[in-house]
From TrEMBL:
Transmembrane portions of the chain: 6-26
Organism superkingdom: Bacteria
InterPro entries (UniProt xref): Cyt_oxidase_maturation_cbb3
Protein name: Cbb3-type cytochrome oxidase assembly protein CcoS
Keyword annotations of the record: Membrane, Transmembrane, Transmembrane helix
Claim: GTP-binding is one of the keywords in the record: no
Amino acid sequence: MDIIAALIPISIVLLVVATGAFLWALRGGQYDDLEGPAHRILHDDDDPAHHAAADLKKND
């Protein structure tokens, strides 16, 4: 029974830490663009059309 008294506060502390880490990542913009990196790896960096499209996107 003593172990339960120790594990409950430890689990609450871990829950608070995990929630804090999630909120920190959320506010830091980690989940803003979920599809961009997946599509970016498919583009050829040496393609001039890709650079032109990226420049147009930056100017908007």
